[in-house]
Design goal:
elongated, 3 domains, alpha/beta, disordered N terminus, 3-stranded antiparallel β-sheet, 5-stranded parallel β-sheet, Arc Repressor Mutant, subunit A, Rossmann fold, 54% helix, 490 residues
Length: 490
C-alpha cells in the first residue's frame, strides 16, 4: 500500500501545483487519504446505481454502460451544484487589506476639514483642548492627520506627541517629553548641539532653542490626557470632589508649572486630547485663554470610499474580494447600517474592529454575519482571536486570558477598570507571575491592554487597563460565550 501511495504521489506531483504540495506535511499519507476518498465515492456511486435500478425498472433494462453513464452524470451534476454553492459566495482573498490602522493618513478619508481647522487653531492659539467621545478617532486625527499636516509647511508648528496613558505624575512626564522630542526630532536636536538623549532638566531649554533655530513654534500634544487625569484623580480634586484652581494645581506639579510658563510666554503651544466626559477636569489646566475643538463621529457616507479603497486592486494583482456581488456588497451595506447611529454617524474604532473580525471568515455573506452574532459578535470575535493566540503562546487556556481581561472590565461593559499587577496576581493565584506578566505584555502588543508605569518617586506596581473603553463590550460578550451552555440551561 505504501508503494502504491508513493507511486501515486510521483504521478500527481506533475499535475498539482508544487506550492500546494509544499504545504502538505506528509504527501504519502495525503495521497493515501485521497485514494480512500476516491474509493468511497466509487462505492457511493455503485450504491446510487442500485437504488436507481430499484426505483425505476426501465433503468435496469438499459445497457450497463448507459447505467454507469447516467450515474456518473447525476453525481457530476450534484458536485457541480455543490461547487456553485461554495464557489459562488464572496471570498476574501487578501485578508491583510482589512487591517485598518486609524493613524494611517490614507484612512482619514473625510477628515481633511477637521485636520485643517485643528491645524489652524494650533497656529493661532496658545492653548487648545480637543474633545470627543471614546473611540471617535481623536488620537488618529492627531497622529495621522495633524502631525503630517504640520510637517507640510515651514511656518507650521513643530509637533511633539506625548502619550500620557502610562505617564508618571510629575517629572516623569518631562522624561516622556524628552523621549518624544528625541525620537521625533533627533536631527533638529543634533543641529542645536545635543548628541544624546535629553534629560528632564534640559527639555524646555531645547524647546526654546528649537524655536529659534527652526522658526517653528513647538506644539506639545498631550494625548490620552483623560487616562492621566483618571490615574491621578486625587491630584486634581481637593478632598476628592472640589476641582483645584489653576494656580493651586500648578504649585503641586513642577512639570505643568513649566509648561504653563512657556505657553504664557509663547515659547510653545499646547494641545490636550481628552474624552468629552472628563473635560471638566481640564479647567485646572486653563492657565491662559483657550479654545475647544469638538470631534464628532464620522459620517457614514464617508465610509463608502474607505471600503472602496481597501478592496481596490490593480488589474494584474490578486483581487481583494472574489465575487463581491455574491455577498460582500450586501454585507458592507448591512455593516454600515448597524454601525450608524443618530445622524448616520459611525464610531471609527467600531469599524476597525469589525473589519479585523470578518477578515478571518472564509465567506463574506450576511448569513455568516448573522450566524456570528452581528455587530456584538464581531466585537466578541476580536477579543476571542487575541485571547486564543496569546493563550497558545503562553501555554494557558483561552478562558484564563479572557478572565484576566474581565478583571479589567466594568460589568456594564462600557468602561475599563484599572488593576495593579499585584492585585491581578492575588486574583489569579493559580497563574504563575511570569506567565501573567508575559500574557499582559502580549496583550499590550496586540493593542488589547495598556499599562501605567508607577512614578519612580512613588511606590506601587504597574497599573493595567484595557487599551480602549470600547473593547469592554467585546470582553463581556467573549466571557458570556465561555459559559453559553451553562447560562442557557440556567
Amino acid at each position: 500500500m505504501i508503494y502504491i501511495s508513493n507511486a501515486y504521489v510521483d504521478i500527481t506531483r506533475s499535475m498539482i501545483d508544487k506550492q500546494l504540495l509544499d504545504r502538505i506535511p506528509d504527501p504519502p499519507k495525503a495521497a493515501l487519504g485521497l485514494l480512500v476518498l476516491l474509493l468511497g465515492l466509487a462505492n457511493y456511486a455503485l450504491d446510487l446505481l442500485d437504488k436507481l435500478r430499484t426505483h425505476w425498472e426501465f433503468i435496469a433494462e438499459l445497457p450497463t454502460w448507459s447505467q454507469l453513464a447516467l450515474t456518473f452524470f447525476i453525481c457530476a451534476f450534484a458536485f457541480y451544484l455543490l461547487w456553485l454553492a461554495i464557489k459562488g459566495k464572496s471570498r476574501l482573498l487578501r485578508p491583510e487589506r482589512f487591517i485598518v490602522r486609524p493613524e494611517t493618513p490614507g484612512f482619514l478619508i473625510g477628515r481633511e476639514p477637521e485636520v485643517n481647522d485643528l491645524g489652524g487653531l494650533c497656529i493661532r492659539e496658545q492653548l487648545i483642548f480637543l474633545f470627543g467621545e471614546s473611540g471617535c478617532g481623536k488620537s488618529a486625527l492627531v497622529r495621522g492627520g495633524l502631525v503630517p499636516w504640520c510637517e507640510q509647511g515651514s511656518g507650521r508648528p513643530l509637533p511633539i506627541v506625548i502619550d500620557l496613558a502610562a505617564a508618571p505624575w510629575d517629572q516623569g512626564v518631562s522624561a516622556l517629553l524628552g523621549r518624544s522630542l528625541w525620537i521625533e526630532h533627533k536631527d533638529a536636536c543634533e543641529l542645536i548641539g545635543y548628541k544624546n538623549y535629553p534629560s528632564s532638566d534640559e527639555v524646555f531649554d531645547i524647546l526654546i532653542k528649537l524655536e529659534a533655530r527652526t522658526a517653528r513654534i513647538p506644539l506639545l500634544i498631550f494625548d490620552q490626557f483623560d487616562d492621566y487625569q483618571t490615574a491621578y484623580h486625587e491630584k486634581f480634586y481637593s478632598n476628592g470632589s472640589v476641582l483645584l484652581k489653576v494656580e493651586e494645581f500648578l504649585r503641586q506639579n513642577k512639570f505643568w508649572h513649566q509648561v504653563a510658563s512657556h505657553v504664557r510666554t509663547e515659547h510653545c503651544h499646547c494641545l490636550f486630547v481628552s474624552r468629552d466626559d472628563t473635560s471638566a477636569s481640564l479647567d485646572a489646566l486653563k492657565f491662559c485663554e483657550s479654545r475647544t475643538f469638538l470631534l464628532q463621529r464620522i459620517q457614514d457616507t464617508l465610509i463608502e470610499p474607505l471600503f472602496d479603497k481597501i478592496t481596490a486592486s490593480s488589474s494584474d494583482d490578486l483581487p481583494v474580494v472574489e465575487f463581491p456581488d455574491r455577498g460582500w456588497n450586501q454585507l458592507r451595506r448591512r455593516l454600515l447600517n448597524d454601525l450608524s447611529i443618530q445622524n448616520a454617524r459611525i464610531l471609527p474604532i467600531q469599524l476597525a474592529i469589525a473589519l479585523d473580525s470578518i477578515r478571518h471568515w472564509r465567506f463574506l455573506t450576511v448569513a455568516q454575519y448573522r450566524k456570528q452574532g452581528e455587530l456584538a459578535g464581531l466585537e466578541r470575535l476580536h477579543i476571542e482571536d487575541r485571547a486564543q493566540k496569546i493563550g497558545q503562546e503562553c501555554g494557558i487556556t483561552t478562558r484564563l486570558v479572557i478572565e484576566v481581561l474581565m478583571s479589567l472590565t466594568d460589568r456594564d461593559g462600557k468602561k475599563t477598570l484599572r488593576q495593579g499587577y499585584d492585585e491581578l496576581i492575588r486574583q489569579f493565584p493559580g497563574l504563575e507571575p511570569n506567565t501573567l506578566s508575559t500574557a499582559l505584555e502580549r496583550l499590550e502588543q496586540s493593542h488589547v491592554v495598556r499599562r501605567r508605569v508607577p512614578d519612580p518617586a512613588g511606590s506601587g506596581s504597574e497599573i493595567w487597563f484595557l487599551y480602549h473603553d470600547y473593547l469592554a463590550r467585546g470582553v463581556i460578550e467573549a466571557h458570556r460565550a465561555l459559559d453559553r451552555w451553562r447560562l442557557y440551561l440556567h
